[in-house]
Amino acid sequence: MVAMTKAPDRSLRALLVAVGALAVAVALALSFPSWRGHLTYPAAVAASYLVTWGPLVIALAATFRFWRPSLRFRTADVYLGVIVGVLARAAGILVQYAMTGRMPGPGLMVGDVTGIYVFTTVVAPVVIAPLIEEPFFRGLLQGSLERGIRPWPALIVTSVAFALVHTIADGWSVALIATMLVYGLIAGYAVQRTRRLGPAIIGHAVFNGLAALITWPW
């Protein structure tokens, strides 16, 4: 009888931690514009990531035993992840074109490409973001929701939360919401089917890496 009550209690605690972390991250992100003017540009860049990712990292550390089983990795996850990333990016481009009539293209750069630009365009989204956001959204949030509701509603709720958090952090845009939602659904489905985070982590890196490649100021 004790064994039957422990699992639901642990998943409920994990869910409460995840929701609390999201609430803190959103509150900090929304308040950030009011005080970032007091910081130097490099400090403001660092703070923008800390206020968004900091609460998520703390939540992941606090619930590590809950989502750790999904860290299993297989070689096939690399191939599946590439498919997830390419498919989601292609869908995102089509969504953007349908909504704005414009295709993404190289950005304009005044002056040389700086270290901060490389960090915000490549290092943070391609390397760091997949290692934080996928364990949090697909491992912790989606994983804990699936123990309370059916898998498909859990997938949809997680994908919506993922899309909304990104639009709060990156600026409100219907095209961005739709693109992030499409990616979230594809990545979440891959995790749901494999019970592993590997495909989503690789897919996230490919998804963001393609965006960096397309918009790089060549």
UniProtKB/TrEMBL annotation:
Transmembrane segments annotated in the record for this chain: 39-66, 78-99, 114-132, 152-169, 175-191, 198-216
Residue span, CAAX prenyl protease 2/Lysostaphin resistance protein A-like domain: 120-209
Keywords: Membrane, Transmembrane, Transmembrane helix
Pfam family, one: Rce1-like
Signal peptide: none
Name of the protein in its database record: CAAX prenyl protease 2/Lysostaphin resistance protein A-like domain-containing protein
